[in-house]
Amino acid sequence: MGSCKCWCVFVICLASVFGCVYGSPRSEEVTALENFLHAVLPSSSFTSFNFSAICSWEKIRCTEDGIVTGIFLESLDLRGYIPMNTLGNLSSLSELSLYNNSLQSPIPPDIWSLTNLRYLSLSLNSFEEELSTQLSHLVKLERLDLSQNKFYGPIPQQIGQLNHLQYLYLGFNSFSGSLSADVFTNPSLRVLDISHNELNGSLPPQPTNLSNLLYLNLSGNSISGKLPFGLSAMRTLATLDLSNNSFTGDLESLHGLPSLEQVILSFNSFTGPIPLLRSSKIVKMNSNLLSGHIQAVFGPQLSVLDLSSNSLSGAISELVNVSSPLMKHIDVSSNSFSGSLSLVNFTSFTALEYLDLSSNNITGSIPDAIGDSTNLTYIDFSNNMINGSVPQSFVHLTSLSHLDLSCNSLSGDVTELTRLQNMKYLNLSFNENLGCNFALVAAFGMGSFSGVMDCRPAAANITLPPPGSLRKGKINLGIVVGVVVGCVLGLGVVFMIFSVVRCRKKGRWPRHSTLSLKQRVGTFKEDSKFMSGPFSFESNSGPWVANVKNATSVPVIMFEKPLLNLTFADLLRATSNFNRETQVSQGGLGPVYSAMLPGDLHVSIKVLIDGRILTNEVAASEFSSLAKIKHPNLVPLLGYCIVGEERLVIYEFMKNGGLHRWLLGSPDCSQGFPPHNHMYYDVSRDLASRATVEPLPEAVNLSWGVRHKIALGLARALAFLHHGQSVKLVHRDVKASNVMLDEEFEPHLANTGLAGLLAGSEDAMFAGGSPGYAPPEYGQSGGKVTSMGDVFSYGVVLLELVTGKKPIGDTYEDEEGAGTSGCPAINDLVGWIRMLMHEKQSGSLIRALDSRAYEDPISQGQMLEVLRIGYLCTADLASKRPTIQQVVGLLKDIAPNMNSP
Ligand SMILES: *[C@@H]1O[C@H](CO)[C@@H](O)[C@H](O)[C@H]1NC(C)=O
Ligand SMILES: *[C@@H]1O[C@H](CO)[C@@H](O)[C@H](O)[C@H]1NC(C)=O
Ligand SMILES: *[C@@H]1O[C@H](CO)[C@@H](O)[C@H](O)[C@H]1NC(C)=O
Ligand SMILES: *[C@@H]1O[C@H](CO)[C@@H](O)[C@H](O)[C@H]1NC(C)=O
Ligand SMILES: *[C@@H]1O[C@H](CO)[C@@H](O)[C@H](O)[C@H]1NC(C)=O
Ligand SMILES: *[C@@H]1O[C@H](CO)[C@@H](O)[C@H](O)[C@H]1NC(C)=O
Ligand SMILES: *[C@@H]1O[C@H](CO)[C@@H](O)[C@H](O)[C@H]1NC(C)=O
Ligand SMILES: *[C@@H]1O[C@H](CO)[C@@H](O)[C@H](O)[C@H]1NC(C)=O
Q1: Which residue minimizes the CA distance to atom 14 of ligand 1?
Q2: What is the pLDDT at residue 83?
């Protein structure tokens, strides 16, 4: 006995000495793991990887004798396929995580023989296959995470047999079909997340046994039907997210659930009253059809309440039922609340940061005590019938950055608002009797005071047109003139502020940068004749062209084809001296000509009106860097030419021209739109030169499939600009006329980088995007140009694509009449869609769709989805908009049938 023990000790000692000398013990298992790594590790990390010491790596767990039990190969850029007989051979493996790599399908079947697995994560990879029913062999599984892949098909009901499964994450895949009851009857489940898939059907009628569930997330599917009463058995449930589905019926089965803290039911069609939610901390039920009052159904710990866009009613003073020292965020906008705002006891909302009561039927005045909620950063009371004055106590709201009181009946003086240093957005418009405050007009633009009577005569005092020009209808014309002049002045002020700030910041404007504001205004006037550039000629060639003495000595720089040795003379020849006949459009940046250059190179040449603000050197270097920004959905910049004062940029020609002209509808509708905003395109013009532009086809009918392709391509271009590896660029001027279509109707975003380059130019349009496309924050002081601004403009293009309507100046069918007081009828696309979304009768949304684009109900449904994305992108608040990458993801999930006409 004794000697045997001794032997054993000796053998163990020997083994460990062996281990020390030769590194970790080797075994068939280690070889299998090594084979796996060889197959999937990127070659770059090969050299730095010590294969002889696999088991001593912290990402691998082995037993002493080299049996692999844990693998945590996360975020290592692993690519390709998992080979058979590698991971599948590690029969003792109990934990396997390959989270955040680029592994692909197929998953080798021997993975499903790893019956000792307790934890398996394949999350955030590129697996694209049906989930194997052999999953049921993994009987010890406690935690399964397959989220963020492209798994499709049904969720195997065998998951219900995994009796130890506690955490199941299947979110952000493409699982479809309806949820089987088996998934819902697993008593060990604590977390069930199947969000953002394509599940449909209704929930199984009697889900019981989920007695330990803490977290249930089924958001972002298409599940319909009523909530089964069985949900009321989920006594431990703390988080429930069913948002973005098609649920109907009431919320009775949630009534009194004892542990429910987060209830997120947004964007469904739930009806009936809000149930008793005693433990609630976060409640989001926006965009449903809920009715009834705000009753004392919430818990004392409630901090976020979003009930916007429902059919709730009752006195607004019933907000007392959600008052608590923890309450931070209240949004009850777009309901039918009434009663007096003065009865709301703000003393009991000490922590409140966000308060949106807009679009209700609230009367009375703003109580003084609002000044006690000193943490408020966001207030929106717009579209109500609130009267009285803006209380002095607003000066205490020092964190306030967003204040919208528009479309009410407020009066009196607002001087105290000038003291709020953090204010970034202010809208007081359409309070007829409010006092005008010029400091605020200067800081936030005339738009923030439009419809305020007091602001009008003041503006009109400065430049009244001769009385003879005002014929009959004095009053109306007077107001119109007043508003127009006011707007021009307001824009001017905003623009000047913008320009100066920009000029200082960017150090652009090499020629004028030392001028004072006053001098700049002077320069502007003197220059204006000169500035009109080549596009003002009536004759076929112009002075600036004639002034170029030796055209053959002016080189044209072509980035890809330098050997063509082109000169300005070639451009003159190809455009017949920039003859009007070869002009294809008049963009905001300057006229564009079509030209066929030597070598059968079909290009468009843009003469930048404001190009002269760039010195020759700056222009050359900026154009060269812009040419390096390449993406299949950007119009390629091929070259440039600097000739005298003019800067010409040369782009690849796009056969089907700008998107806007395909959406305008029949030609007779297209007259009268502002030429500055839209390029003109005259179908009847006969372009005799070789470089003809395809005339607009008779029936302007882009099918839904093509429109979707355009939406997705444009989003990809922006995603590349915003989030690309090499570039981080805000386009600043996304609009339909900057979306060029090639022969295949693939979209290409034009003018990338130019708006930024010419930002110092006199054209206020580029200080803040084009009319109808500019996000609200660009018109506000401190409104910075951000990628979220592009997202807004992109959203407008999306809305154009699905509705076929222009962003401004179109007819927007008014269903129920606009705001409740003073507000004008809807006059822009974004406002119109917002109104229709709030009405929430799907009928009215369907009427908004461009009926020329679809024939079948599936396309119609998809267009409604895209309409909703456009609605999200055009949110007033930049922080509420999705990123363009998220938009790409959403659009990719919508796959139109390309065969439909
Ligand atoms: C690899 O690991 C072994 C055992 O730990 C060690 O002896 C060897 O020096 C390592 N090689 C490199 C290149 O780090
Ligand atoms: C993996 O297992 C298979 C079958 O059991 C066997 O043929 C193969 O040699 C093993 N591979 C390794 C590297 O151990
Ligand atoms: C995924 O891995 C990459 C490195 O391959 C890393 O840059 C990125 O931050 C990781 N993402 C997440 C969500 O962990
Ligand atoms: C659910 O989706 C599938 C396709 O994924 C479809 O065949 C089925 O008809 C849908 N069921 C319902 C109720 O919509
Ligand atoms: C608003 O209130 C007025 C009168 O108080 C009522 O006539 C109107 O229908 C209400 N509007 C809504 C949308 O509730
Ligand atoms: C307002 O709320 C405060 C604190 O909750 C309370 O002390 C006060 O009595 C209330 N005032 C009215 C008029 O209800
Ligand atoms: C207001 O905000 C500050 C900073 O976030 C915080 O410390 C303070 O507690 C808040 N006040 C109330 C009454 O919650
Ligand atoms: C505008 O003109 C009217 C009449 O001439 C005058 O009463 C008013 O004070 C002027 N307003 C401003 C702001 O100058």
Answers
A1: 50
A2: 96
DSSP-derived secondary structure for 183-200: GGG-TT-SEEE--SSEE-
**Which atom of ligand 8 lies at the shortest distance from residue 457's CA?**
1
Using CA positions, which residue lies closest to atom 3 of ligand 3? 75
22 lines ligand 1 (CB under 6 A): no
- Classify residue 172 as exposed, middle or buried by CB count within 10 Å of its CB (0-12, 13-18, 19+): buried
Low-confidence residues of the chain, pLDDT below 70? 1-26, 46-48, 207-208, 456-549, 587, 664-700, 759-769, 780-783, 814-825, 840-843, 898-901
- Tell me which ligand sits closest to the C-alpha of residue 348: 6
Our CA angle for 631, 633, 637, nearest 5°, is: 65
If phi > 0 it is left, if psi is from -120 to 50 it is alpha, else beta; for residue 620 that is: alpha
In angstroms, rounded to a whole number, what is the distance separating the alpha carbons of residues 391 and 422?
A: 18
With the most atoms of ligand 4 within 8 angstroms of its CB, the residue from 200, 245, 858 to mutate is 200
What is the distance between the alpha carbons of residues 174 and 597, in angstroms, rounded to a whole number? 48
**Ligand 4 site, residue 174, Cβ cutoff 6 A:** no
As a whole number of angstroms, the distance between CA 739 and CA 658 comes to 6
Q: Is the CB of 50 under 6 A from ligand 1?
A: yes
Q: What is the DSSP string of 276-333?
A: PBTT-SEEE--SSEE-S---S-B-TT--EEE--SS--EEEGGGGGGG--TT--EEE--
Positions of CATH 3.30.200.20 in the chain? 525-652+666-693
**89, 91, 93, 111: residue to mutate for ligand 2 pocket, most atoms within 8 A of CB:** 89
Give ranges for CATH 1.10.510.10 in the chain: 659-664+700-901
CA of 461 to the centre of ligand 8 (A): 6
pLDDT tens for residues 553-586?
888 998 887 777 888 888 888 888 887 778 877 7
317-325 CB contacts, 8 Å cutoff, 24+ apart: 317/343, 317/344, 317/345, 318/293, 318/294, 319/294, 319/344, 320/344, 320/345, 320/348, 321/294, 321/295, 321/296, 321/297, 322/294, 322/298, 323/348, 323/349, 324/300, 324/348, 325/350, 325/351
CA 348 to ligand 6 center in whole angstroms: 6
Residue 758: what pLDDT?
75
Cα(first)–Cα(last) distance of the chain, in Å? 89
Q: Can you tell me the distance from the alpha carbon of 871 to that of 15, in angstroms, rounded to the nearest whole number?
A: 68
Q: Give the model's pLDDT for residue 755.
A: 78
Tell me, yes or no, if 828 is annotated catalytic.
no
pTM attached to this predicted model: 0.63
Centre of ligand 2 from the C-alpha of residue 32, in Å: 7
Q: Which ligand is nearest to the CA of 57?
A: 1
Q: In CATH, which superfamily holds the domain spanning 525-652+666-693? A: Phosphorylase Kinase; domain 1 (3.30.200.20)
Ligand 5 centroid from CA 431, angstroms: 19
Residue nearest to atom 7 of ligand 5 (CA): 361
Instruction: Tell me which of 733, 790, 810, 828 is the catalytic residue.
Output: 733
Alpha carbon of 459 to ligand 8 centroid (Å): 9
pLDDT at 876: 87
Element housing 493 (H / E)? helix 474-506
Single-letter amino acid code for the residue at 230: G
Q: What local confidence, expressed as pLDDT, does residue 519 receive?
A: 28
3-state secondary structure 735-757: CHHHEEECCCCCEEECCCCHHHH
Q: Has domain 659-664+700-901 been given CATH number 1.10.510.10?
A: yes
Predicted pLDDT at 874: 94
Contact 757, 622 (CB under 8 A): yes
Nearest to 797 by CA among 739, 881, 847: 739
Per DSSP, 83 falls in state: -
Copy the structure tokens of residue 128. Answer: 């694209």
Residue 482 has a pLDDT of 36
